[in-house]
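Q: Is it fine to ask for two folds in a single conversation?
A: Yes, each is treated on its own. Send the first.
Q: Here.
A: Result:
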Amino acid sequence: MHKKPVRMLILTILLLGGIAGGVVAALKHEPGFYQRIAIEAGGDRTRQSDEFMKQFFTLLNRVYDTRRGKWTFNFTQEQINSYFEEDFVRLKDAEAFAKLGIHAPRVQLENDTMRLAFRYGSGFWSTVLTYEVRVWLVPTEANTLAVEILHRKAGGLPIAAQSLLNDLKELARNRSIDVSWYRRDGNPVALIRFPSNRSRPSAQLLRFEVVNGRLTIEGQSFEPTLPPSESSDPEDS
């Protein structure tokens, strides 16, 4: 008379064990694209990381220098991922992200979308988080990017990762980049305004485009203007 409850208990344990095993297997799944876009160590990876760094710092100089005119910079997927493996680690930028549990970031550039992936956590419970995003310039706000999160996965499982997004928001704020969130068609969208500590930006972004493994950033620099307190008084002339 006690065989049926015992049998049901055993079946329940086996069922729950199978579900748990499936969840763990899904979490441990490493997306194929994450493996494919990894850059093999060697001279070519070092060279491409150097190229990314040179272009990136040239871009920063054009944003902040006093030369007028338009400028365009192109970054390839290989250059960006080489940087993540090389100078990102060497210059210790990776340490700030490691404090959030983020390691080995990689990016895949597709038509109009990007897939950002990184290993999250450590040890047995680490997994690869993947964010598929669409990025565009906000036409009504200068120097503001909208980043719409289309899909989020931990391994092979869809997830909600609000706490991680809040951590990244705080990390951006510490670097004078303002981030706010809203929802569009049910998807979270980050509005990234930079640099947030300058009332008179010296440059304006004109294009931020992702096409066929390449990121293109185009902008225009202006002559610097003095704030009213520093401008000359007509009566003094």
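Q: Second one now.
A: Result:
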Amino acid sequence: MNCLSIVFESVDKSIEAVKGFEIVEYRLDKINFAGRIKDLFSVKVQTVATYKPVAGVSDSDRISALKQSIDAGATYIDIEIENHEAYKSELIDYARAKGTKIIISYHDYVKTPLSRELEQLLSWAGEYNPDIIKIACMVNDKKDSARLMSLYDSDLTLIVIGMGELGRITRIASVQLGAPFTFVSFDKDSKTASGQLSAEQLADILTRINA
């Protein structure tokens, strides 16, 4: 299943883009959502609320926006494992109390860690008992992609992504290896990460593979 990652500044454009998708990710760090979080999450699809750190935005403001998203009906919230413990604990407790599912994510925008480090990351993320663990790392050679995909040899529910042009194959393979969904852009001009495929591109590739 493809999850549309939405980065349009306009709330109205973000809601319009949802049409035709089963699940969407709202990047709250990119959307000018002032006073309109309820509108974003009123759409009749599964939703992921993500608010990455932004210069000038406090952790308390991010927590507030994610809590509002939970109250408005977000299906999942994505919490970066790199955040401090108080931040994670507050959001996890709030989400669980409201029945919102939890994604614990890790990002490395420079490299793919060694296998033992990736296993340690999975173990660390697993301590929070999330519904999904997401690992996204920059791929600098083919071995990085192979190392990332090997993580699917696990009983955990994972979304593993290789960023960068060399990591594009991981975005195709992930849903074939057990990921509940993978992230796509609305079009080539609205990518949220290097190497990300558009919804149209990935759908075409998967159709060909599964024909």
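Q: Anything structural to flag on that second result?
A: Two points. The mean pLDDT is 89. The beta strands are 2-6, 23-27, 46-50, 76-80, 101-108, 132-138, 158-163, 182-184.
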